[in-house]
Amino acid sequence: MVVLVLKDLVDIVGEDFVSERPEELYLYSKDMTENFPETPDIVVMPETTEEVQKIVLFANKNKIPITPYVAGSNVGGLAIPYGKGILMDLKRMKKVIEINKKDMYIVIEPGFTFGHLRKLLDEELIEFQYSFPFAPPFSSVLVNAILQGLGNLSHKYGSMSESLNGIEVVLPNGKIARAGTCAISPYWYSRTPLPDLLGLFVGWQGTTGIATKGSICLWPKPPIITHCVVFATDPADVYNRFIFKLCRSGICQEIGGGLLNMFMSKGLLPMEELKNLIEMMGFVPRFEGLYFVNLLTLYGNTEEEVKAKYKFLVKMVNEINDQDGAQLVLLKPEDYGEMGQKMMTPMDLPIQIPGLLNRGGLTWVGSYVPLSKWLEGCIKGIEIHKKYDKIPGVLHRPMKSGHYGVLRFLIPFDKSNEKEIEEIRAMVKELAEMILDIGGVIYKMPPWVAPKIMERADPGFVSLLKKIKKTLDPNGILNPHHLGFD
Amino acid sequence: MIAGENIKTGLEKVKEWVSWCPKCNSCKYLYKDYAESCPAGEHFKFETYWSSGKVWLAYGLLNGILKWNENIIKIIYACPLCGACSMQCQQDVSDHLIEIFEALREEAVSRGFGPYSNQKAFYDSIIANNNPYKEPHSNRLNWLDQKELKTTAEVLYFVGCTSSYREKELAKSTFELLKKLNVDFTISPDEHCCGSPALRTGQVNVIPELIKKNMDIFKKSGAKTIVTSCAGCYRTLKIDYPKILGKELPFEILHISEFIFKLMKEGKLKIDKEKPIKITYHDPCHLGRHAGVFDEPREILKNIPELELIEMRRIRENSWCCGAGGGVKSGFKDWAVKIAIDRLKEAEQTGAEDLITSCPFCLRNFKDAAKSMGSNLKIFGIVELLKDLI
Predict the structure, then answer these.
(1) Which end of chain B is more exposed for a tag (fewer CB within 10 A), N or C?
(2) What does the alpha-carbon distance between residue A139 and residue A135 come to, in Å, rounded to a whole number?
C-alpha cells in the first residue's frame, strides 16, 4: 500500500519531496503540546496548487486521509495526523501572489509566514500594519487566519479571520473553489456582498478544504504610535472596570494584557527594577495575588492627537485610583530606557518567546469569552492552577473594541516528565470545562476538547456541521478526528 | 575521553537536553531578521534537517522510537555544524545544539553507521599520516623554503593540515607576516592534525592521542602563545582541547587575526601602505559563531588606509555558512559548493571586488564555488592581504 502511494506521490511532486522514512514521519507525529502523538504513513511537500489538487484527487479516490501542515505550532495538536495517511507539508508554498497597495491587501500562499510578513511590511509596505500573534516567526499567516487566531491588533479588528478577504481552496473532491470577491472579480478585496462561503472553511480546522491562496487585509499604520503599560494589583474588579472603560473610549489600537505571575517566575520581566520604579512613583509594589499588566497602544495622525489621548488616559487612571483607592500604575516605556525596552518585548512581534519553552513543552487553553465573563474565568482558572500547583500564566485581550474577549491560560511544562504531562492533561480538561461553563468557547480546539464542545452544542448546529462536512468531504479524508464528531 | 573512565559517550552525553526543544521553529530564521539561517534545512526541506529536527531525532533514537538507518546518517552528516541555529534559538537548548549534533555523529560511528567513506578516509589518513589528506607527514613543511627553525620560541605557529598541504599560500603568508613583524616564533615540523576533521564527524577515538602529541609539541616549543591561521584548528585547540582535558591549557591560543590586532592595539603594528580596494568579509563559523571572534578581523581591515569594507547582508552571528564545515565538503561535495555559491552571490551583491576570510577551509570552498559559478570575486585570506602591506 505504502509503496504504491509513494510512487504516485513521487510522480506528482518528485522524489525529493516525498518520504515514507520513519524518521521523517516521526517529526510530524507530535507537537510541543501534551496531545497524544500519531504518525502519518507518508509525507509530501507540494509547491503548487496543481500539485495539491493532484494529491487530493489521488487521496480522495483511494480514501486516504490528508492532514495539512505548515509549521505545526498551533499549540493544539491540530496538525497531528490522527487519521494517519498523508501529511501534506505546505511550507514550500510561500509566495506572495499579489500586493495591492491601493486596495490594501496581499494575496499569499499558506507557507508564507509571519517572519516573511514582518520583513515585507518593514521593507516594502511601511505604510501598513497587520495583526501579529504572540507566536514564533515561522508560523503561517494564512493558517492563523483560517484557524481564527488573534493578534496584536485584535482589539481593533477582531480575530484574524476577520482580516481574510477571500481564499482559494482545493476541495476534498479535488475541485478548486474560491470564496470572496475573488470568485467573481480579479480583485481579492472583500467577502461581501456575497454568500460568505469562507464560513465553509474558516474555523473548520483544515477539515473541509486545503487553502492554497488567501487574501489578507493590510491595515493602515497610524503615523504616530505611543505605547503605555498599566500595572494593577487587587482588587481585580477595579482593573476590570478600567478595561471596560478603556474599550469604550476607543483611544487604543492595541490592548493586550495578562497576569504577571508566570512571566515573573520565568524571569521575563525585570522585577527588581519594576519594584523600585513603582515605589518611586508613590505606589506600594505588590507582586502577590492577582497582578495584571496591560500593554496599550495609543495612535493618531498627529502628535497632538496622541498627546490628547494620553492625557485622557491619565485622567481615566487617576479617576479610578481616586474613586476606588485602587493601584493602577501607568508608565510610558519610552521614558525608562532599557527597562522600558524590556517591557515592550512582548510587543516586538513575531516573538521567539525567550525562556518560556525551556523544557520543550507548552500548551494552552485558549478561548473567546463574553468580555463580561473574562475575569470570572480568570479567577476560576487561577484556582485550578493552584490545585495542580502551577503558576498561572494568563493572557487576555478585549477583542473587536470589547465585543468579546480572549482568555488564554498558557502552560509550559517539562516534556521529559511523563507524570507532569499526565497532570497537564487533567488540568487542561478542567480549564476547558470551566470555560465552557462560564459561556466561553475554546478556539483552535484540540482533539480532546472538540467532543466536549459538540456535546454542549445546539443539536441543530451539530447536525448542520455534519451535513456540510459530509457534503464537502464524503469520504472523510481531510484532517479526520479534529472536529469532535468525525 | 581522557579525563576519566565514567565519561559518557555518544547520545548518553546529551540525554538531558534532547527533550528541551519545543520545535517552535525559531531556529529556521535569523533572529529578528527573518532571513534563512540553516543551509541543510533550506536545501533538503524535510523537518529532520533543521536544528529542531535533529534534536527530536536524537530523542527518538535515545528512546528507542527510531532505529538507525542510512537516511538518518545523511540527515546528521548534511549539517555543516555552522551553529547558526544556536544563535537564533531563544531556549536553553540553544547552548547544547552543536553538542547534540556531534553526539549524534559519535553515536553513529560507535554503532558502525557513520561516517561517509571520504570522512572515514580522512580519519584513516590522520592515523597513518597525521593529516587527513593522505600526504606524507615529512612533507608537512614543504611549503617553507627556510628549513631552519628555532627549537623554542615565545610563539608557536600551528599551521594546520589544510594550510600545510592545500592552501599553502596562507601558510606562506602567515610565516612571512610573522617574520616581517619580528615575532619570536617557530613552527613544529612534527605538528599533528588538530583532530577537527575526526571530531566533527564523530570519529573520536583518535582524539586523545592527537591531543597528547600536540600538547607535547607545544610544551617542547616553550611557547606561551599558540597562533593559528585556521579557524577549524583554532576552535579545536581553544574550545575542544580544554573541554576534553577537563582543564585550561597552559598556553594562550590565538587566531592570527587576534594576534595581529593585539599588536595593533599595543602600538607595535601600524599599516601605512594604502590599499584602495572594496572588500567584503566572511565570518568563518568556527572562528565567529563558535568562538566569538567577529571584531578583530574587521578592526584590522578598518586600519588599512583607503580600504573600504562593505558588509554582506548576513554577517557575524548571522553569517551564512561557507558550506565546507562539519564534514560536508567531504560528504556532500557538490552541495557544499552550492552553499558557498549562495554566499558568493551575497558577497557580489555588495559591489566588493574581493572576498576576505580567515579560514583555509572557507577559502578552499569559496574558490571551488567561484570556479563553478564563474565569479570574478578575488578570494583570499586576511594574512595574504596583510603581508604585502607591511
Answers:
(1) N
(2) 7
Nearest to A357 among B24, B66, B88 (CB): B24
Q: Which CATH number covers residue A382?
A: 3.30.300.330
Q: Whole domain around residue A298: which residue ranges?
A: 224-347
E-only strand ranges, B252-347? 252-255, 278-281, 308-309
Together in a domain, B56 and B156:
no
Contacts of A31 in chain B (CB under 8 A): 23
CATH of the domain at B304: 3.40.50.1860
Asked whether the bond before B115 is cis by omega within 30 degrees of 0, the reply is: yes
The verdict on a CB contact (< 8 Å) between B45 and A45 is yes
CA dihedral A334, A338, A341, A346 (to 10 degrees): -150
A394 vs chain B: nearest CA distance in angstroms? Answer: 20
What is the rounded average pLDDT of the residues B263-268? 94
Same domain, B101 and B146: no
**If you measure CA to CA, which chain A residue comes closest to B16?**
A416
Cross-chain Cβ contact A362/B25 below 8 Å = no
Statement to judge: residues A214 and A256 lie in one domain: no
Q: Is residue A279 part of a domain?
A: yes
Closest Cβ–Cβ partner in A118, A357, A415 for B34? A118
Is residue B382 in some structural domain? yes
Q: Is residue A345 less than 8 Å (CB to CB) from chain B?
A: no
Interchain CB contact of A136 with B (< 8 Å): yes
Q: Are strands A164-170 and A176-180 parallel, antiparallel or unpaired?
A: antiparallel
Rounded CA-CA distance A30/A444 in Å is: 16
Task: Kindly report the CATH number assigned to the domain that includes residue A33.
Answer: 3.30.43.10
Domain presence at residue B49: yes
Residue A269: per-residue pLDDT: 64
Count CA atoms within 13 Å of residue B223 on its CB side: 28
Residue A463 lies in a domain: no
The interface predicted TM-score of the complex, written ipTM, equals: 0.93
Taking CA–CA distances from A414, the nearest residue in chain B reads B20
Q: Where are the beta strands (DSSP E) in B266-367?
A: 278-281, 308-309, 354-357
Between A202-211, A460-469, B22-31, the lowest mean confidence (pLDDT) is in B22-31
Instruction: Report which of A326, A297, A315, A415 is spatially closest to residue A363, judged by C-alpha positions.
Output: A415
| Per-residue burial over A447-473, b = 16 or more CB atoms within 10 Å of its CB, e = otherwise | bbbbebbbeeeeeeebeebeeebeebb
Q: What is the average pLDDT score of chain B?
A: 95
CB atoms B23 and A414 under 8 Å: no
8 Å CB contact between B88 and B31: yes
Q: CA-to-CA distance for B214 and A408, rounded, in angstroms?
A: 58
Given B110, B137, B172, the domain boundary residue is: B110
Q: What integer pLDDT is reported at residue A317 of this predicted model?
A: 93
CB contacts, 8 Å: B25 with chain A = 71, 73, 136-139
Q: Does B91 contact A17 at a Cβ distance shorter than 8 Å?
A: no
Co-location of B249 and B326 in the same domain:
no
Q: Which of B105-109, B143-147, B237-241, B295-299 has the lowest mean pLDDT?
A: B143-147
pLDDT score recorded for residue A288: 62
B48 vs A27, A137, A361: nearest CB = A27
The pLDDT assigned to A444 comes to 94
Of the three residues A287, A315, A347, the one that is the final residue of a domain is A347
Does residue B348 lie within any of the structural domains? yes
Report which DSSP code applies to B143.
T
Angle subtended at Cα B234 by Cα B228 and Cα B236, rounded to the nearest 5 degrees: 135
Domain range spanning residue B24?
A: 10-110
**B297 and B352 belong to one structural domain:** yes
Residue A247 inside a domain? The answer is: yes
**Ramachandran area for residue B25 (φ above 0: left; ψ -120 to 50: alpha; else beta):** left
**Three-class SS of residue A84?**
coil
Residue B2 has pLDDT above 60, yes or no: no
Last residue of one domain, picked from the residues A220, A240, A267: A220
CA–CA distance, B154 with B146 (Å, rounded to integer): 19
